[in-house]
Amino acid sequence: MKIGELAARTGVSIRSLRYYEQQGLLTSARNENGYREYSVLAEDQVRTIQLYLNLGLSTEQIAGFLHCVLKNKEAFCTEVFPIFRQKIAEIEAQIHQLNHIKTNLEERMQSILDERKSEEAEENK
Predict the structure, then answer these.
(1) Phi, psi (5° rounding) for residue 74?
(2) What separation in angstroms does the CA of 18 have from each of 29, 36, 87, 92?
(3) Which of 9, 18, 23, 25 is spaced 20 to 30 Å from 58 by Cα?
(4) Phi, psi dihedral angles at 37 (to 5 degrees)
């Protein structure tokens, strides 16, 4: 199948498909006219790539185990768990940082409200 058909079947842009190919996640054959030709398995491959991208993994991380999960069940790919653990640690760090920012904003808002109340009290004297 040609790149346009693969894009239509998967809902992934042609630009993204070319990027996946540049990253080594997807392969195609080249016709004499230079058009990319993908195997029937490419649709499943793109859907698998999308699944892992939606989990927040980078194409570099996916490249580390994609070949394995396409050949075997994910449960049999030992490369997956370290990457998942790393991603979970990143997410936990982001959550911690966001909670810290949220607390700072709440404290700042309260400080502004307290200052406003204090000024209003002074004006009412």
Answers:
(1) -55, -35
(2) 13, 10, 25, 32
(3) 9
(4) -130, 125
The encoded tokens of residue 121 equal 């009290």
Query: Which pair of structure tokens corresponds to residue 125?
Result: 């004297």
Q: What ranges do the domains of the chain cover?
A: 1-57, 78-125
CA geometry: angle 4, 5, 7, nearest 5 deg: 65
Structure tokens at 84: 């998942």
Q: CATH assignment of 1-57, given 3.40.630.30, 3.20.20.80, 1.10.1660.10, 3.40.640.10?
A: 1.10.1660.10
pTM: 0.79
Rounded Cα distance, 113 and 109, in Å: 6
